[in-house]
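One-letter codes give the sequence; each number marks local geometry. A record appears below:


***
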Amino acid sequence: MKTSEFIEHIIQDFGFTPTIDQQVALETFASFLADQRSNVVMILRGSAGTGKTSLAGAMVRSLRRFGQKLMLLAPTGRAAKVFSINSGLPAYTVHRRIYREQAYQGIDGQFNLNDNFYHNMLFVVDEASMVNSVPTGDNVFGSGSLLDDLIKYVYSGHNCRLLLIGDRAQLPPVGEQEAPALSADVLAGYGLKVYECDLNVVLRQSQDSGILYNATYIRHLITYDEATELPRIEFDGFPDIEVMPGNEIIESLASSYSQVGLDDTIVVTRSNKRANVYNQGIRNMVLDRESALSGGDMVMIVRNNYFWTENLQAEAAKLGDPAESENIPAFLANGDRARVQRVRNIREFYGFHFADVWLQFPDYDNFEMQATVIMDSLTTDTPALTHEQSEQLFQQVMADYADLPTKPERLKVLRKDIYFNALQIKFAYAVTCHKAQGGQWRNVYVDQGYMTDEMLTPDYIHWLYTAFTRATEKLYLVNWPKNQVAINRTD
């Protein structure tokens, strides 16, 4: 098929007349696919309102109809779910596809890079701004650099290649100044021939959205380094963005939960401490929940856990049920969200509180499982249990096995201990922006906290842009200061 015919098929699926940027992106994409070299990669960058999501969806659907083998990936479960909805095809998390668990070597699981046995596969990674290149310290996954491992995995397959899609105005990975997976220079450093394109033209229909109008303005501050004072947000004439006074937020959240549901409402904050305050307030004053943890609560896994799914895999293997085994995740990832169905047997051991809970994971086809959780992590102001708490739990549980003569023997039984391996969870009604990144919710409440001109940094502007673009229908800015409100709208 000629390149022009192929592009025309994508445009038909797209359903709109492409902008000049979009046309260039399609031509670049066609050239990327036609390149016979084995070391080609493509980057499709685009900000909110430029049609990146719709165009990418049309591209992958068209390729699927033409028989191209595709593997759609995203860094988080929520992002994979959004990618699947937008493309109409299954999508998976990067970690669950490119890593496999190795033999136990300590108190944590260890995942090594998987073998890529695919032929002629195009791997498409959405939300690639979240893919890190600098190890984070939690190096249980391969080298610790997700970008290194992703590239090594993809290009170890026969005639496989990679398409990376993302928005570099969003928050970069923790500890990095930019999104390395969206940088042509970084990818060229791997010896890859890079095709790249940018969608910069904001579609006219996006100008009718206050969310996208203001996100475009904030992105402009990032792109042109014009953030010399706190951004002034335009509210006038936009029904999808408004200031939410603090004394009205309880009633507003209750209305949102009733209208769009718990799973499509989120509060985004700048700190774990602030998120914790919101979570406690929402449970007490909006949801009227008095117990420490209740059925119906939305929670988030805040530390990678391999114990419970590994046990489920073992049980499925004993039953000889490969279909059931395929549906069980390899592990529960930091950031995965779950709905509590039942809570039983709350008890105290080792100075901590535990409960047996039945969980349902909405981002993984409502996968269900039972596990023991440690409830103390629910109310800490830190991302998970503090280092001191984790050390206390470790020492207390190890003391129970003091009758075993050697440390390796004690570590072996520790790996099977349900209390040491209890899931660490937090409530998921309010989260930090890093935890929300990659996901979208119909109604988003953003609380940036106290801000002054002296606190203005590039990180703050990236944070604000990322927080704004989590909302698909309605954005509420909580206690938004008057000095950050635009006086007149200029088109």
